[in-house]
Specification:
By secondary structure, the protein is mainly β. 6% of the residues lie in helices and 42% in strands. The strands form 6 sheets. The protein has a 7-stranded mixed β-sheet with strand order 13-12-11-15-20-17-18, with no helix packed on it. Strands 1-14-22-21-16-19 form a 6-stranded mixed β-sheet, with no helix packed on it. A hairpin with a 2-residue loop joins strand 12 and strand 13. The longest helix has 6 residues. The radius of gyration is 21 Å and the shape is globular. The N terminus is likely disordered. The structure holds CU-O-CU linkage and copper (II) ion (2 copies). The site of CU-O-CU linkage (C2O) has 10 residues, from strand 6 and strand 32.
Length: 459
């Protein structure tokens, strides 16, 4: 199990990097809401070309939303009527998908909602789900991997009464920190071309350098207080096993779709591509001058410097929200999704994506059980096994079984993406409450682009 997650492309070990080579962690800004009316929100997103010096003195060609790389954070409240103006200034098509958001199919930003160059797409929807850390990214057929890799990705926060009332760190960029973790492969001159080799088509495109919010070897200054890290694995293909250098425990408080029932003490949290976790790290016992390193396995991801004694701090709430488990007796239909194949042949239920084919037709508000298996076994020692993180649009689901047993505690909250390792079986319960056409797919973007995706219609 452990082995399968290890990088096939080795990560450069930056643990010993000199202090002067470290970069201050960039904090993506909160996007301005142009609609002053209470309960309404309007945002402008420009999809644009950028240039970014990931490595000092070397400029890379990138893509970004409202900037050179990545995008601002869209923050809305539950119940808000939201409109977004997506202006495509590129000379190629794109789409913007709201990953994790429950909105009607036409607003979902999947491969059917193409935004042509020099046009604006204006989706609108009502926020109809609890507080969560979601994200947005392109979803153009066969081009998702490249556009995301070049920099198109941003976070999408939902807040609600509960998230506001809980005793949690809430100061954006101070003690509530967005962390978009990605890996890149740089050329000599600091570029990030998306050229797929044979291995990249097989395993997905993995880099040798880890970036957080677009920075290599980032460091973050905090006070000696409880700090909330909102982790997004925004990588094309790499999974991470996040832990801290001193093996200190932390508390996970949220999974993909929002808060967990209770905060969970743990020492390591694994995130497959597209998965999110919010964790609380308690620095109250630390003093100014102390340092802690956020790691992926043994590799340094980000250095955290405690620079100042805090006057006060939030706590670590034990109880978070109510999550009413679905009742399996209410299941109306059970569907199977078999992920199989290797490289360009990856498929779900033996089929590859066809824009003109609807694979499953569902009824609104009926409880469904989905059995997701991974039959992609490696060709022995040669290739290793192929993990597939399975993602479903338009819904947050409940994982009820992993390999016949109870799923780990941190998979018992709301999820929209779930890792299915080679040979595994995951069962989930889902109720779809928005109509339209949606996608399910593997979130290793090179697998998705190869056709490891299907369509379902909710009516
Ligand atoms: Cu994060 Cu179908 O996508
Ligand atoms: Cu999605
Ligand atoms: Cu896959």
């Amino acid at each position: 199990m452990e082995e399968q997650n290890r990088p096939s492309v080795d990560i450069e070990n930056t643990n010993d990097r000199a202090d002067e080579e470290r970069n201050k962690l960039p904090i993506p800004p909160l996007l301005e809401d142009k609609n002053p009316e209470e309960g309404k929100a309007e945002f402008d997103l420009n999809v644009q070309y950028g240039k970014k010096e990931f490595i000092e003195g070397k400029e890379a060609e990138t893509l970004g939303y409202n900037g050179d790389y990545l995008g601002p954070i869209i923050r809305v409240n539950k119940g808000d009527d939201v409109k977004i103006n997506v202006n495509n200034t590129l000379d190629e098509q794109t789409t913007v998908h709201w990953h994790g958001l429950e909105v009607p199919g036409e607003m979902d930003g999947g491969p059917h909602q193409v935004v042509e160059p020099d046009t604006t797409w204006e989706p609108y929807f009502t926020i109809d789900q609890p507080a969560a850390t979601l994200w947005y990214h392109p979803h153009l057929l066969h081009k998702t991997g490249e556009q995301v890799y070049k920099g198109l990705a941003g976070l999408f926060y939902i807040e609600d009464e509960k998230s506001k009332a809980l005793d949690l760190p809430k100061e954006h960029g101070v003690n509530d920190i967005p962390l978009v973790v990605q890996d890149k492969r740089f050329t000599q001159d600091g570029q990030i071309p998306y050229d797929l080799g044979m291995r990249d088509v097989m395993d997905g495109f993995k880099g040798d350098t880890i970036l957080v919010n677009g920075a290599i070897s980032p460091e973050l200054d905090v006070k000696s207080e409880v700090v909330r890290l909102r982790l997004l694995n925004g990588s094309n293909a790499r999974s991470y096993d996040f832990n801290f250098s001193d093996n200190r425990a932390f508390h996970q408080i949220a999974s993909d779709g929002g808060f967990l029932k209770n905060s969970i003490e743990m020492q390591e949290v694994s995130l497959a591509p597209a998965e999110r976790a919010e964790i609380l790290v308690d620095f109250r016992e630390y003093s100014a001058g102390d340092q802690v390193v956020l790691r992926d396995g043994d590799y340094e991801v980000m250095r955290i410097n405690i620079v100042e004694e805090a006057q006060q701090s939030s706590g670590i709430p034990e109880e978070l929200v109510d999550i009413v488990p679905y009742d399996r007796d209410d299941v109306v239909i059970t569907r199977e999704f078999v992920m199989s194949g290797m490289g360009p042949m990856v498929a779900i239920n033996g089929k590859q994506m066809d824009m003109d084919r609807i694979d499953e037709t569902l009824n609104l508000n009926e409880l469904e059980e989905w059995v997701v298996t991974n039959e992609s076994s490696g060709m022995g020692m040669m290739m290793g096994d192929t993990p597939h993180p399975f993602h479903v649009h338009g819904v947050q689901f409940q994982v009820i079984e992993r390999n016949g047993g109870e799923p780990p505690l941190n998979e018992q909250g709301w999820k929209d993406t779930v890792m299915v390792e080679s040979g595994e079986e995951v069962r989930l319960l889902a109720k779809f409450n928005k109509k339209g056409l949606f996608m399910y797919h593997c979130h290793i973007l090179e697998h998705e682009d190869s056709g490891m995706m299907g369509q379902f219609l909710v009516e």
